Structures are given as structure tokens and as C-alpha cells.
């Protein structure tokens, strides 16, 4: 494959996905840490930040190494990506609106414990249109896992548990850390895909130069 087959924008698109997963995965870990009610706070916050930073570094590596790639995009591709970005904005905005409505309902009905698993359901559901929009199959798996996690937790886990006289918000901990692991795992897979695209583009460019010399 050549650079025209894999332009810079394709690699940087995967980098954006990795940054997204790193940031929101760490936010979900924060929810899990909040549910621990101060237990092992420093260890958990340090580990969560470390994972997020490592993913972010991987994304920066993709962006930096993609700089030599061609940035030529035909008009049809440019228009298609503009349309995709518009739909991404719509999906992301709708997700935020649904989360805000869920928060209002949970607080108003004094069921704040429900908010975290309900939010995971909303976040999981939003990955399905994203998978179709950007043609990223792993997003379907991510969405399914998030929805299953929230559903299983609500149906089988107690809201709170006591461990060594310390109260833990079991729903927040389970959904928070579970969602973080799912998003971080997705970020790793997307990052590896980005480096594969980068390698294919670079090898294609080298082959093109060799052909020219011959």
C-alpha cells in the first residue's frame, strides 16, 4: 500500500480515538475510585493516571510519526469525513443530553446510585452508531461490553457492601473500573491498529522509492 492509500489523516484519526479512550477511561476509573470511599486512594489514582498517560503517549507517537505521510485527500473523501464529523458531533451531543437527563431524573427521584450504571448504558449505546459511522468493528464490542456490564451489575450486585468495616459503593466501583478497563482495552487495540496503518504506509513509501530507482 502507498501513502495515497493510507494518508496522514487516517493515522491521526486512530490517534484521536486513542486519546478519547485514554481520557474517558481514566474518568470512569475516577468514578470507581470515588466508589471506594477513600480506600487505597493513592494507589488507585496513581495506577489509573499511569494507564491514561501511557495511552496518551501512544497517541502522540502516532501523530508525530505520521507527519511525513501524505496529506492529500480527494474531494470525495474530504466531503465524506466532514459529514462523518458532523454526525459524530450529533451523536456526542445526544449522548451528553441523555446523560444530563438521566442525572436529573436520578437526583430528583433520590436514586443517585442508579446514575452510574445508567450512564454506562448510554455510553455503551453510543458506540454502536460510532462503529457504523467510522467503520470500526471493535466499537460494537466495546458498546456491547459496556451495556452488559451495567446490566449485570444492576441485576446481580448489591448497591453497597462492607469490607473490613469500610463501606464501598459496589455499583460505582464495579461499573467505574469495569468501564475503564473496557475503554482502555479498546484504546490499546485502536492504538495498535494505528501503528499497523503507519507501518503499512511507511513500507509502501519505501517500496515506491525502490521502484522509482529501478
Describe the protein's topology:
Layout: H1 8-35, H2 41-65, H3 75-108, H4 115-134, H5 138-156, E1 161-163, E2 166-168, H6 170-213
Antiparallel strand pairs: 1-2
Helix pairs in contact: 1-2, 1-6, 2-6, 3-4, 4-5, 5-6
Shape, per Cα inertia axes = globular
Order of helices and strands: HHHHHEEH
Low-confidence stretches: 206-214
The fraction of residues in strands falls at under 5%
Radius of gyration: 20 Å
Read across the widest sheet, the strand sequence of neighbours is 1-2
What does this protein look like?
This protein is mainly alpha-helical. Helix content is about 80%, strand content about 5%. It has a two-stranded antiparallel sheet. Helix 5 runs antiparallel to helix 6 (about 170-214). The chain is globular.
Quick recap:
The protein has helices at 8-35, 41-65, 75-108, 115-134, 138-156, 170-213; strands at residues 161-163, 166-168.
Brief descriptors of the model:
214 residues; mainly alpha; two-stranded antiparallel ribbon; 6 helices; globular; disordered C terminus
Amino acid at each position: 500500500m502507498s501513502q495515497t492509500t493510507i494518508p496522514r489523516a487516517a493515522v491521526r484519526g486512530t490517534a484521536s480515538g486513542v486519546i478519547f479512550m485514554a481520557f474517558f477511561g481514566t474518568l470512569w476509573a475516577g468514578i470507581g475510585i470515588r466508589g471506594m470511599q477513600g480506600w487505597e486512594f493513592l494507589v488507585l489514582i496513581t495506577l489509573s493516571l499511569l494507564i491514561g498517560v501511557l495511552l496518551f503517549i501512544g497517541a502522540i507517537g502516532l501523530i508525530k510519526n505520521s507527519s511525513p505521510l501524505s496529506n492529500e485527500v480527494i474531494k470525495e473523501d474530504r466531503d465524506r469525513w466532514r459529514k462523518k464529523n458532523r454526525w459524530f458531533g450529533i451523536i456526542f451531543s445526544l449522548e451528553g443530553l441523555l446523560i444530563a437527563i438521566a442525572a436529573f431524573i436520578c437526583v430528583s427521584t433520590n436514586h443517585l446510585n442508579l446514575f452510574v450504571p445508567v450512564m454506562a448504558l448510554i455510553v455503551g449505546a453510543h458506540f454502536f452508531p460510532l462503529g457504523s459511522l467510522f467503520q470500526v468493528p471493535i466499537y460494537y464490542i466495546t458498546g456491547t461490553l459496556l451495556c452488559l456490564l451495567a446490566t449485570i451489575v444492576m441485576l446481580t450486585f448489591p448497591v453497597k457492601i462492607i469490607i473490613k468495616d469500610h463501606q464501598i459503593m459496589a455499583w460505582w466501583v464495579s461499573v467505574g473500573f469495569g468501564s475503564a478497563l473496557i475503554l482502555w482495552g479498546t484504546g490499546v487495540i485502536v492504538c495498535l491498529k494505528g501503528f499497523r496503518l503507519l507501518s503499512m504506509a511507511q513500507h509502501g513509501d519505501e517500496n515506491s522509492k525502490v521502484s522509482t530507482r529501478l
